[in-house]
Amino acid sequence: MSQPRSRHVLNAEHQVVEAALDAQEQGDLAGAERLYRALIEADDRNGIAHNNLANLLRTSGRFTDAVDHYRRALEWMPDSAPIRANLADTLESIQQYEAAEAEYRRALELDPACAEARYNYGLLLLAAGRYAEGWAYYEARSQVFREHGALPFARWNGEDLRGKTLLLLPEQGYGDTIQFVRYVSLLKARGLAKLSVICKPALVPLLRTVQGIDALITDPQGLQVHDYWDSLLSLPCRFGTTPESIPAQIPYVGVFTNRLETWRTRLPAHGIRVGLVWQGNPEHDNDAERSLPHFSALRPLWSVQGVSFISLQVGGAEAEVQECADEQPVVCLGDEIRDFGDTAAIVGQLNLIICVDTAVAHLAGALGVACWLMLPRRGVDWRWHRTGVQSPWYPKAMYLFRQREAGWQGMIGEVRDALTDIVRERQA
After folding, report:
1. What SS3 string covers the chain?
2. What global pTM score does this model have?
3. Is residue 6 scored above 70 in pLDDT?
4. Residue 58's closest CA among 94, 90, 13, 97?
5. How far apart are CA 288 and CA 341, in angstroms?
6. How far apart are CA 357 and CA 352, in angstroms?
């Protein structure tokens, strides 16, 4: 039988753990790892050291090693819901979905109120297309992210809306608003007297084209009391959405004529017009996986003749195009785009969009413009599911290219071949 550790030993271990955490915060991951491993070498029963080392390994992308140390931690701390939730998330990262689900369920048995476990379990279910089970768990995101403050009126939970007023709040990114604003028509069909939507100014010109929105609010100071409020991302849960019942009357956004005319003369007159977006929001948790490292990664596409490429990239990355200007001339419009009204006016006049997982993909889908979406191998967002080449959210316009191996080269080769086929069909 092992002997209990003395208080002196426990205090010394605690100090080492604190030093390792400080090293992590300062970016010294190697130093933190050495400290954790020293603790484990001194006493393999140290569950906290195993867990913290596993967290570090997971952050570094060493998922298999992380799983081993989470399991070692659970040998000594079997009733820890957070450790089981961490293990579940890591198992999901290496596509061990059944094992991940079992660990999420065990974590929630231990602590039903663990919001992060509920939320991540919801993501696992939604990614598997199990919407009927997943939406209720997905609601835990409000406790995880706390994007919405308190409002002085009730949240809508399915009550009769005839003659009532409802305020919809956004969450997360621009693409989420574009994706879920489709539910406006279902809400108005319930007899709402007024439907208001809070949004960022960049979305106003686009959302003005959505039938059923009575007011767009960009300044919270101008917010008026409504009968109810709800989040756009909670509407699928309220309507009991399944993959088969997604409201997909596309297009559900439009473009103003004056915007179309403004951009028409800027677009190439010949060839298949293909819009490009290769980087998303750099602040996104999975941006390192979902964005291309550089515009030059698209170089295989330049071999396809009969195509005019247009950059829709905003945020400064468009400067990368100049480094490849000698190989492929690209019409750069991204730096001139003011808002999503401009982007919609350009996208609406293109034949195809090729992009990574960012808001432009949702915009193209909502407009009904053909979009080839390039998805990473790890961290694919739940809405694109785990398999398949089509999306029930944008059933006709979107085609999903999925990374089968590390790096983008193989996938971009597939995109090039598909684009070549399109050109050949058009010429034939």
Report:
1. CCCCCCHHHHHHHHHHHHHHHHHHHCCCHHHHHHHHHHHHHHCCCCHHHHHHHHHHHHHCCCHHHHHHHHHHHHHHCCCCHHHHHHHHHHHHHCCCHHHHHHHHHHHHHHCCCCHHHHHHHHHHHHHCCCHHHHHHHHCCHHHHHCCCCCCCCEECCCCCCCCCEEEEECCCCHHHHHHHHHHHHHHHCCCCCEEEEECCHHHHHHHCCCCCCCEEECCHHHCCCCCEEEEHHHHHHHCCCCCCCCCCCCCCCCCCHHHHHHHHCCCCCCCEEEEEECCCCCCCCCHHHHCCCCHHHHHHHHHCCCEEEEECCCCCHHHHHHHHCCCCCCEECHHHCCCHHHHHHHHCCCCEEEEECCHHHHHHHHHCCCEEEEECCCCCCHHHCCCCCCECCECCCEEEEECCCCCCHHHHHHHHHHHHHHHHHHHC
2. 0.92
3. no
4. 90
5. 28
6. 15
User: pLDDT-based confidence at 11, cuts 50/70/90?
Assistant: low
Average pLDDT over residues 284-288: 85
Q: Given pLDDT bands bounded at 50, 70 and 90, which one contains residue 132? A: very high
Please give the C-alpha separations between residue 184 and each of 176, 212, 226, 398, in angstroms, as whole numbers: 14, 6, 16, 22
Which domains are present in the chain?
7-145 (1.25.40.10), 154-238 (3.40.50.720), 257-427 (3.40.50.2000)
Residue for token pair 């029963």: 45
Give whole-number Cα distances, 113 to 55, 58, 105, 235, in Å.
Answer: 22, 24, 12, 22
pLDDT of residue 8: 40
